[in-house]
Design brief:
82% helix; 0% strand; mainly alpha; 20 helices
């Protein structure tokens, strides 16, 4: 081979190698673009095949529920045509509804579970209604038994998911069915027994693991059933011929059991578990007690005052214990306020039901004095407010407003009853024993002001009556005599309050003295000037003028003394 040929061959090989290298370089540059493109294609969202895939489970559940409703209509058509015995068809429909209830508790999807539960209720409730009322193929007692079996199946099947999506519709539907059949069938006690069992379950669950979402609906259905029972059996027997005859004890057993359940659940929930009482629970307890009390008054009117009065006093003691023992120093002020308020109302109701007005006044006065003494030891403003309430109740029970009206403004009463004298003594002693301070909050100032006004009101009435009685021993009092003596009594009490406020360092007494000044000026215009006897009118004007001058000066001495002590 010649050298040119060799060179030519080598040159060809070099060109071939260069071509191959160029091809490899082009492939290496194109590879990253291909990989990036594939990566982008991988990250792109998969196109939705169809929205029906998302709506598929919901539409499937709706279709299955419609098939269930269709099956119920088939049973209804068979029952309407009397193809088979209606009782057998009714029991078959109940079993059909129970099967749907079990299926609802075992479905994982919320929508499907709730829809199947609603289907179960819509199958069972109309079937029981028509079998009892339209076809009369099923007695109310048998219908109540079927509903009880249905409810027991729901509780057993859903025992692991009482707060699941299917349980609430099933439980609420059972309560609504029981209420409807209770009113529609005229046989109320079997269905009320079912509602009582449901209420017991709801309250036990509230204590064990918290309140269920369906609890308010069940309790309201229970309240409606008991209220209907009491209203219907309150009527004369001639007005409720379609209803079975029940004794008063049978009628009152349901509200009594409900009251015991609600009271026990509230006591455990608040006193033992130290939980805050809900607003609905508070109103529910008051409504149940009100229905029971009304039922006792309607069914056994002759025993109602003593029975309800004694119950009120017992519950009053329980409420005071619950208010001041576990809650007074805890962070649950709502429980404390509720129990304390209930205690006052229950004590007032119990006293008015058990005692005559004079003894009600005496008992309330003693209770007021006891709360005044206990308030500073327990550091309780609420007890001080209770003393005002008890004094006000005692004042109305003993007839103090009417007595003071006759003594100070109208004609003179002939007789002074011992309850009024006792009230005046207790009011004066109560204000003397209360711990009034120079710097108080608005609540304490208001309480002490009302207490001082009540004591002053009674003192003015008694002093005026005493002056009129002493004057009546010497002369027969004429209207101008009476007007002058009333002015003297009111001005004397005003001056006494002003002086006492300075000596005892009680600003409330000075404030009440100014109230008396306003009253005596109005009295001078509307009573003393009206009678027109110049001598006695001059005396009244002079006494009022001296009082108007003296009281502010005495009060200013108290104010200046406070300023000096602060300095």
């Amino acid at each position: 081979m010649t050298p040119p040929e060799v060179l030519e061959q080598l040159s060809g090989r070099v060109e071939d190698l260069e071509r191959r290298v160029a091809q490899l370089e082009q492939r290496s540059l194109a590879a990253p673009d291909t990989i990036a493109t594939e990566t982008k294609l991988q990250h792109l969202p998969a196109p939705a095949t169809s929205e029906s895939w998302q709506m598929g489970p919901a539409l499937t559940a709706v279709g299955i529920s419609l098939l269930g409703i269709a099956g119920a209509y088939v049973l209804r058509a068979l029952a309407g045509g009397a193809v088979l015995p209606r009782l057998i068809l009714g029991l078959t429909g109940a079993a059909y509804g129970i099967g749907w209830a079990v299926a609802a508790t075992r479905v994982s999807r919320k929508f499907s579970g709730g829809l199947y539960a609603a289907t179960s209720v819509l199958i069972l409730a109309p079937m029981l209604w028509e079998m009892c009322l339209r076809f009369q193929a099923m007695s109310p007692l048998l219908a109540a038994g079927v509903l009880a079996i249905y409810l027991a199946t729901v509780l057993i099947a859903g025992r692991n998911s009482y707060k699941g999506p299917a349980f609430s519709p099933l439980f609420a539907g059972s309560a609504a069915t029981a209420l409807a059949l209770c009113i529609g069938t005229r046989s109320m006690l079997p269905f009320i027994a079912i509602l009582l069992a449901m209420t017991l379950f709801v309250e036990v669950q509230r204590i064990r693991s918290g309140a269920l979402a369906v609890a308010p609906f069940v309790l309201l259905a229970m309240d409606a059933a008991i209220f209907a029972l009491l209203v219907i059996y309150r009527m004369p027997a001639a007005g409720r011929l379609e209803y079975p005859v029940l004794s008063p004890a049978a009628v009152l057993a349901a509200p009594l059991l409900l009251l015991l359940m609600e009271a026990t659940a509230t006591a455990v929930h608040t006193c033992y578990q130290r939980q805050r009482m809900g607003i609905f629970d508070a109103f529910q307890l008051m409504a149940v007690f009100g229905m029971f009390a009304a039922g006792v008054f309607w069914m056994v009117a002759e025993l109602a005052p003593s029975a309800i009065g004694s119950l009120c006093l017992v519950l009053c003691g329980a409420c005071y214990w619950a208010a001041f023992d576990p809650f007074h120093c805890t962070a649950e002020p709502r429980n404390f306020r509720l129990f304390a308020t209930w205690a006052v109302v229950l004590l007032a109701c119990g006293l008015y039901l058990l005692e005559p007005p004079s003894w009600v006044a005496a008992t309330c006065a003693v209770a007021a004095l006891g709360t005044i003494l206990a308030a500073p030891r327990l550091h309780s403003t609420t007890l001080e407010a209770h003393s005002i309430v008890y004094l006000a109740l005692a004042a109305f029970a003993c007839g103090l407003p009417a007595y003071a009206w006759h003594v100070i403004i109208a004609d003179i009463p002939v007789h002074l009853g011992w309850p009024i004298a006792l009230f005046a003594a207790v009011a004066l002693a109560g204000y003397a024993l209360c711990h009034e301070q120079q710097s108080e909050d608005s609540a304490h100032r208001a309480i002490h002001l009302v207490l001082a006004l009540l004591a002053t009101f009674a003192a003015c009435a008694l002093l005026t009556h005493g002056l009129l009685a002493v004057t009546g021993l010497a002369v027969h009092p004429e209207p101008f005599h009476i007007a002058l003596l009333r002015t003297v009594a009111v001005c004397a009490v005003a001056l006494t309050l002003a002086l006492g406020g300075v000596r005892l360092q009680r600003i409330t007494m000075s404030r009440v003295a100014y109230v008396l000044l306003a009253f005596v000026v109005l009295k001078l215009v509307f009573e003393d000037l009206r009678h027109g006897h110049l001598a006695f009118l001059a005396a009244s004007i002079g006494i009022v003028a001296v009082t108007l001058i003296a009281v502010p000066r005495i009060a200013n001495r108290q104010s200046s003394g406070q300023v000096i002590r602060r300095a």
